[in-house]
Amino acid sequence: MSNGNGASEPRMHTISVLVENKFGVLSRVAGLFSARGYNIESLSVGETLDPAVSRMTLVVTGDEFIIEQVMKQLHKLIDVIKVSDLTDDRHVERELVLIRVNAEPQHRAEILRTGDIFRARVVDVTPISFILEATGDQEKIDAFIELLRPMGIQEIVRTGKVAIARGPKTKAARKLEQPKRPRQVDDPRVVGFAD
Amino acid sequence: MRMSGARMVLECLKREGVDTIFGLPGGAVLPIYDVLYDFEGLRHILVRQEAAAGHAAEGYSRTTGKIGVCLVTSGPAATNLVTALQDAMMDSIPIVAFTGQVPTHLIGNDAFQEADNVGITRPCTKHNFLVKDGKDIGPIIREAFHIASTGRPGPVHIDLPKDVLVKDAELIWPERVHMRSYNPTYEGHPGQIKRAAKSIVHAQRPVFYVGGGVISADAHAELRELTELTQVPLTQTLMGLGAFPMAHPLSLDMLGMHGAYYANMAVHHSDCLVAIGARFDDRVTGKVDMFAPHAEIIHIDVDPSSISKNIKVDVPIVGDCRRVLAKLLEAVREELKKEPPAEVREGRRKWAQQIAEWKRDFPFRYDWNDDVIKPQYVIQELSNLTHGDAFIVTGVGQHQMWAAQYYKFTHPRRWCTSGGLGTMGYGLPTAMGVQAAHPGKLVVNIDGDGSFQMNSQEMATCFAENLPVKTIIINNSGHGMVRQWQRIIYKERYCAIDLPGIPDWVKLAEAYGCVGLRVTKPSEVVPALEKMLATPAPVILDVCVDKDECVFPMVPAGGANTDMILAPPSREVKEKAAKSQTGF
Predict the structure, then answer these.
(1) Could you confirm whether domain B375-553 is CATH 3.50.50.60?
(2) Contact: B182, A23; criterion CB under 8 Å
(3) Is there a common fold for A11-89 and A92-158?
(4) Scanning A2, A177, B5, B57, which has its CA 20 to 30 A from the CA of B406?
(5) Are strands B539-544 and B515-519 parallel, antiparallel or unpaired?
(6) What is the phi/psi pair of residue B497, to 5°?
(7) Active-site residue B50, yes or no?
(8) Beta strands across the sheet bearing B315-318
(9) Smallest Cα–Cα separation from B275: which of B183, B331, B199?
(10) B409 counts as catalytic
């Protein structure tokens, strides 16, 4: 933005968006970013407790004016129910990574030890490779990848970031996500680490 | 009630209070036209190209305050319509556009006349829908009309696959529309309104800057009351013209790139700028760093994303212009109970004096010539003859700016122009829509010879549908605005701008069964205008004007509003302009 309003330094923001789970919503959101020249670092989408509502978690880089516009423009989309910037609130963020790494005999133990430290799981084994699964915030995932790099990483698949505010939810926010079906027991595998 | 999807569409339109639709049939929408054959209570106007249906709906909407409706078929019809949708999007005009679509089982199959309609219109509509089930038609049309007309108005597009139109379904008609994800803010924040009132009353050099939002919200009465109460001078944007009577002593006419010198100077030197239903468009602000640099900026707008988008706002008020102005009026009255301090009164007195001097010394002006018609003169005389109360529509270019400068509007909703998108060819089809909404009223399309040719086929519609639009072609045998830029900024390297006197507009008018008139001398202008106004049929009045005439004042793109060029370029102005690296 060239308005000389003393714009702040650009930084990464985590924006959580509740949307109607309708046909075309993702392209409306994606289109908004491309049309206005904003960059999405990552985006993940999933159902909420109410199957008619989806949650998108967006990571966007920008100064405060850009982020303000991003929030306003998102909110302007008809199918968007709620937009919140989690960046400066207490929140937990996680991403998941699947890594296919070379597993030569001399490296197998080392890889498993490193995996243990990062509380990663081995989800596929062959005589010459492992696939490891790890979750964590971005820094942890980056560090894990760096430690495995010397063994020879064949392929990496990373999800976008998902994030959730810490502490109990307010009444107003809870109302929006009121379950229409009985709450399912959370699958411990997707709850993530307690760190 | 069970009925075919096609009948349901028309039935729902009738229930929404629609009386006129602009359209052009084709394969995918034939089921609707089959129902229309003996459907009572809807007038269908057959256009000659689909963009014209969209523009006509815009004209209908802007001058009535109701929602304009258009209906075209799939594929190429939908892509032709896109220009009109984006035009309505940029200027916040509420229209609902229907397109046909190939049957649902063929979507994505590269079927005949298939295009990804909702994919294409997504960025150029406020919202769009693909109907997949006949029972959704009623609720979707209800939502579409609700979305188009509320909040910041805009176009909504509904895509109708052919099989959905053919199959029977139950008509569902929700009495009320409730959308949890769409709740525009109408009431302004009381604290902010109080702050704004205080600032306005205590400012020494206040200015109101008023845009099309005032017209959309029908807030002109409140605006006039507030302006007269506070005695704050007021300037209007291109889209806002008519929101305030232009002959009023407090009116500063239009601001911006081709706005009045006094309007731009007043905004530049103001200490309190109140933007009402305007969006700080680049054609208004010029160089943003230099726009109203000393002013506290108060911004009233129904769209929160307009606020602090281009210019940082000090007092944002999100809400409907009419409701906010009514509250602001109360707050100002309260504030005025205490007399403002002496220095404020003295400052206001000096400000009024300064503005009067600017208005006296730098009015809109042109040089009279006995032999060649000056385009400004034609519009001035039209304004006099019609007392500023005709429906005026324009194309895009020099004639548009002259119309904005010289036609002195007395009422809102009399002016349709393509402000945001700058769509050449907008004039004639939009004028048709205005005429269809106001039978028996005078509708004048002020157009250019370049712009008019982009939709001149609609003369056939004017003739066939008995829409007696009067078109004045400000004919300078070329793309005048481009010529002006090439003259002033590109060192007279004229390229691709000549339209050498063809077609013969009088003959063309006659070929379409309409009346053609031509004038070449200044003395003939008034008699010709009178003759045109007295003719009951559609008319083209070809006015051959001075092709060297430029629109002044002018702020070169990217320049500050204080860098206005006031007169035809002298050598030094040309050199100064050539140094600034600017383009369209």
Answers:
(1) no
(2) no
(3) yes
(4) B57
(5) parallel
(6) -125, -5
(7) yes
(8) B251-254, B234-236, B206-210, B272-276, B296-301, B315-318
(9) B199
(10) no
Q: Amino acid letter at B161?
A: P
Domain ranges in chain B are 2-170, 190-361, 375-553
User: Which tens digits make up the pLDDT trace of B316-352?
Assistant: 999 999 999 999 999 999 999 998 999 999 999 999 9
What CATH number should be reported for the domain whose range is B2-170? 3.40.50.970
* Domains B2-170 and B190-361 belong to one CATH topology: yes
| B481 classed as catalytic | yes
Candidate from A73, A78, A176 with C-beta closest to B127: A78
B311 has a chain A CB within 8 A of its CB:
yes
Decide yes or no: CATH 3.30.70.260 for domain A11-89. yes
**Residue spans of beta strands (DSSP E) within chain A:** 11-20, 40-47, 53-62, 80-85, 91-102, 121-126, 129-136, 153-158, 162-165
Q: Minimal Cα distance from A80: which residue of B?
A: B181
- Measured between its terminal Cα atoms, the distance across chain B in Å is 55
Length of chain B: 584
- pLDDT of residue A186 exceeding 50, the answer is no
d(CA B88, CA B62): 10
Rounded Cα distance, B470 and B541, in Å: 8
CB B264 within 8 A of CB B564: yes
What does the mean pLDDT of chain B come to? 95
Residue B4, Cα to own-chain centre: how many angstroms?
37
Interface check for A48 against chain B (CB to CB < 8 A): the answer is no
Question: pLDDT band at A187, cuts 50/70/90?
Answer: very low
Closest CA to A191 of A124, A105, A96: A96
Class of domain A92-158: alpha beta
DSSP reduced 3-state for B222? helix
Residue the block writes with tokens 């009255």:
B333
Q: What SS3 state is found at A91? A: strand
Q: Do B122 and A69 touch (CB under 8 A)?
A: no
Instruction: Work out the average pLDDT over B347-374.
Output: 95
pTM: 0.92
Residue A3 pLDDT exceeds 50: no
Closest Cβ–Cβ partner in A5, A69, A81 for B312: A5
* Residues A87-118: tens digit of each pLDDT: 999 999 999 999 999 999 999 999 999 999 99
Please list the alpha-helical segments (H only) found in chain A.
25-36, 64-76, 108-117, 138-148, 171-176, 188-191
Q: Which amino acid is at B452?
A: F
Phi, psi of B293, rounded to the nearest 5 degrees: -65, -20
Q: How many CA atoms lie within 13 A of B200 on its CB side?
A: 33
What is the second-level CATH architecture of the domain B190-361? 3-Layer(aba) Sandwich (3.40)
Question: Domain locations in chain A?
Answer: 11-89, 92-158
Active site residue B162: yes
B-chain CB neighbours of A27 within 8 Å are 119, 122
pLDDT at A170 over 70: no
Q: Do B289 and A76 touch (CB under 8 A)?
A: no
Residue among B123, B179, B288 whose CB faces A3 most closely: B288
Q: What are B220-277's pLDDT values in tens digits? A: 999 999 999 999 999 999 999 999 999 999 999 999 999 999 999 999 999 999 999 9
Query: What angle in degrees, to the nearest 10, is found between the helix axes of B50-64 and B427-437?
Result: 50
Phi, psi values for residue B15, rounded to 5°: -65, -30
